[in-house]
Amino acid sequence: xxxxxxxxxxxxxxxxxxxxxxxxxxxxxxxxxxxxxxxxxxxxxxxxxxxxxxxxxxxxxxxxxxxxxxxxxxxxxxxxxxxxxxxxxxxxxxxxxxxxxxxxxxxxxxxxxxxxxxxxxxxxxxxxxxxxxxxxxxxxxxxxxxxxxxxxxxxxxxxxxxxxxxxxxxxxxxxxxxxxxxxxxxxxxxxxxxxxxxxxxxxxxxxxxxxxxxxxxxxxxxxxxxxxxxxxxxxxxxxxxxxxxxxxxxx
Length: 251
What we know:
By secondary structure, the chain is of the alpha/beta class. The protein is built from twelve helices and seven strands. The chain has helices spanning about 5-20, 35-40, 50-55, 85, 90-100, 120-125, 140-160, 165-175, 175-180, 185-195, 195-210, 225-240; strands at about 25-30, 65, 75, 105-110, 130-135, 210-220, 245-250. It is globular and about 55 Å long. The model has no long low-confidence stretch (mean pLDDT about 90).
C-alpha cells in the first residue's frame, strides 16, 4: 500500500511480458486517485477513461477498452479529474468489479493505487490472483502488513454475513488501537469460538482460502532477498494465512 515502490511498473512489465507470449491482455488502471498506467503503455491522450464509466456516460467497461502500441495489449485508462472517479460510489464499484469478469481477455491486470482504502481492498480481494509488491524497507514492509491485515479482516467479515455480533467484533480489530494491541488475529478466532462455534469454523475456512503472492521489488543485494520469506512467515504466524513468495526483482 506504499506509494513509489513500483506497482505500476510491475503491472506494465507483466502486461508486456504476457502479451509477448501471445496472450490477450487488458490492463486496467484501478489507481483511482493518481492513475498513470497509460503513460507506461504508450497511450498519450485516451478518448475514454473510467471517468466515463463512473459518471455513467457509458454502460459497459468494454466501451473503454483501448488498443495500445503493443500487440495483444489493450488498456482501460484511469482519470483523476473528478470526485466520481477518485471516490466512486459503492454501487458503481460493485458494477465495476462485476464487469471486469466480462472483458475479452486471457488475463485482466489491475493496477491498484497506494493506501489502505475500501476501493483498494475490495479490488484486491476481487482478483483471482493477488500480487502484493513491496520493497525491502521497514516502511514498505509495515505498510504491506497493515494492508493485508485489513484485507484479511474484510475477507473474514464476508464469510460470516448474517452474524451481526461477530461482524461487530471483527470491526473492533480493524481500528488502529486494536491493530497496535493485537496485530495477530488468533485472539479474534478464539473469541469467536467462545461465542459461536459455527461462525468460528467459517472464519477458519476463510483463512484457508485466502491467497496472496509476494514480490520483492528494487532489491539491491542478495541479503535483502531474505525479507520476502520472512514476510510470508510473519503473515502465517500473525494472520494465519499462507502467502507465496514469487521472488525478487533487482533494482
